[in-house]
Structure formats: C-alpha cells, structure tokens
C-alpha cells in the first residue's frame, strides 16, 4: 500500500476541522457537496452508486461546473487565532472532478469585520445569492494576505491525493479564504499551526490545556492508534479514533495483580506532555474515557511544572510536581477530580499501563503575571 512521508508540521495542532471548532463562514457554491464536508473530522469515503437529486454524492466540497465568469472560494473561521505552519489539501476520490489549482489567503478579523459575513445556510444544490456576494465584497477578502500562492493539485488517487503545503508566515490569523481555480472538488482541508488566542480575563475559570485556549501537545511516549493532541480538542470525542490511544505494552506481567487501592501492579506506563495556553493554577480536572470500553487505562496521574522559558524537551531533567496521584479509571465515563496546583506552564499526563483517553480538561485561573 502506498504511504507518503508526512511533513513535520502535521505534529502541530489541527485548527480548521469541525471537531477542533472550525466553521465554514461563506461559500460561493455548494451544488454537488457542501463546504462543511471539507472540514469533517472523518476520513473521506466513496460510495459507488450513491446519488442526490443534483448529481453524484461526494464526501467533500464540490462546486458545479462553472458557466459564468469567476472562480469558487470559501471562507473558514479557524478554531482559534493561530500561526499557520502548513496545510493538507486532500482530493481523495475526486479523480475527474478535483479542483485543478488552489490558493489560500488569511486575515485576522475583528468582530465588526466578521459581522459583514452573510448568514450561512448549509444545503446542497445552492450557491450564494447576488445579495450575499455584494455583502461579502465589503470584507475585501480578495485582498487578504496570500500565504499559499496559486498551486496545482493532484487527482484523488491514493498515491496523489495528499497535497501538503508548508507556510512560512509568523502572523497570527483567525480566518482563511480557500480559492479554487476555477471550480471542482476538495475532499478535506487540514490546517496545522500554533494557537495564539486572546488572553481571557484573570477571574475566568478556563480550560488551560484546551487547544482553543492555546494548549498544545509537545511530546509523548506512544501514539500508535491515536495522537494525544486529540484529547485537548473541544467538545466530546466522536469515536475512539478521535482520542489518544497507545499500543498494548509488551512488558505487562503474565498474571496481573492489584494494589490495596485497587490500581494494578504494573511496571510500565505511557505519557504525554502538554504546554498550557497560559500559565495558571489548576482547580479541577476532567478525564473522559468515553468510547474506550475495553481499552481504557487502569489509572491516570497528572503532574505539572513551571518552566520560565516555556520550553520542554524530553532529554531535560524536569522537576515535575504531582497534581493528582495515580487514580483508578473506569470505562466509557467522565471522571472529575478537585485539585489545587501551584502555577504551572506544562502538564504531564501519565496512564498506566496503556490504553486510550477521549478528552481531558484542566480548569483553572490564569496567572496574573
């Protein structure tokens, strides 16, 4: 089976998909398939004999064959303000109907500018009205910063569907404009980057590790079935594939015994390290094992540390301080713990011996400094 080497930027948080909080703000045309499909969390699929009243059903964004002047484009609102590191434009299954070329522009919009975008109604067989097009012109999105120039796409065969594009801008953006030249289909768009959200009020209790508040995964021991960056996405996980799941450890004892507190006597564990969006103190922790019914970890432990320079590397000796001692977990359930930590910048989550988590939430107060 063909497998292309992925570029390094895919390790950054993904910030355009629906599960991360991305949204379609505007689209010129949704005739065959709506733009919302392009930011769906699931992998694209193809159903041979599935048709709609408008034509072949496709799992992506597909516009009609253009018979008027212009080209198709859309505006996406990212999950949070971010520095974009790269894109994946996936043309899966669009083999004779993929968009030949694309470009991407970006902007950081104020609430007043965002209010100029017409109300979005998702429906196949539709296109933007003349009134909507006049309204969106006020935003002057065609003059936004170009971060990906006009670039050729490849057809949606397995060996050519993944079109990666690195971005070299250090600006932070809230919205992107995806241009198709002139029309056609894109199965999925993924936007990878570093969150740069606005600072919440000091009195607000916020999820300090959430990707929408600037949290990110900076290291892990094992991500065989699912990356730990998934567990800091907003909302509930949609399936096991939308969480962090490790391989089964091979150092498990032949016969497993239990400790007095109910946790198991195990040698090994797996871990993930997260940088918080803002330094802060932790007051409450949620650990969600939803969907993990036969593969949840036996226990979980949380540790934190304050690093002045905000840098963490695996080879450094880190003075981790315990926030939550190893605590027994159960299947398919949200677990809550009250804690009281010092000010920290980084969090280490350790699961024993292995398994999967759907989401974690770390509620606390931002450091006043």
TrEMBL record:
Protein family (similarity comment): Belongs to the allantoicase family.
Pfam families noted in UniProt: Allantoicase
Name the UniProt record assigns to this protein: Allantoate amidinohydrolase
Gene Ontology terms for molecular function: allantoicase activity
InterPro entries linked: Allantoicase (IPR005164), Allantoicase_dom (IPR015908), Galactose-bd-like_sf (IPR008979)
GO biological-process terms attached to the record: allantoin catabolic process
Limits of the Allantoicase domain: 21-195, 214-364
